[in-house]
Structures are given as structure tokens and as C-alpha cells.
Inverse folding.
């Protein structure tokens, strides 16, 4: 048996590691859009960044009953 609460935290940390480079890249894009005065692009990037921040709140993480189900949880924001 596995300690599922601990496994969920491990999976959340894994997702945080996966999102870090994506957030860094979006930070650069955001700064460029900000410098260019492109408010629409800034809003689009802000929404993408929020989606990445929310990956650890995916309900599938809490719903997973086995370690294999938990490992399979990769929110859409990380697949793009």
C-alpha cells in the first residue's frame, strides 16, 4: 500500500518542476509584450501563466485512487 496523501504531494512537486521552465519562458514573453504595449498579448500570457499555476489544483489529483492513476495526471496546461 502507498500513502496516497504523500504520493499526491510528490506528484504536485513533479508538476511544479514541469511547469517551471514554461513559466520562465512566459515571463520573457510577457515582458516583451509589456514593452511593446500589447495589452491583449499581456492578458493572454497572464491567463496561460494562471493555468500553469493551477496545475496542482487539478481535481484528478485528489480523485486518483492508485499511484498509477496519479502518475497519469498531467493537466492540459503542461502538455501544450
Amino acid at each position: 500500500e502507498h500513502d496516497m496523501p504523500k504520493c499526491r504531494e510528490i506528484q504536485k512537486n513533479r508538476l511544479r518542476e514541469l511547469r517551471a521552465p514554461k513559466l520562465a519562458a512566459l515571463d520573457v514573453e510577457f515582458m516583451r509584450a509589456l514593452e511593446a504595449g500589447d495589452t491583449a498579448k499581456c492578458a493572454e500570457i497572464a491567463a496561460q501563466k494562471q493555468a500553469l499555476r493551477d496545475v496542482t489544483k487539478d481535481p484528478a489529483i485528489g480523485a486518483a485512487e492508485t499511484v498509477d492513476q496519479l502518475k497519469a495526471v498531467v493537466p492540459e496546461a503542461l502538455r501544450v
In short: The radius of gyration is 15 Å. Helices lie at 4-36, 39-53, 59-63, 67-71, 76-79. The mean pLDDT is 96.
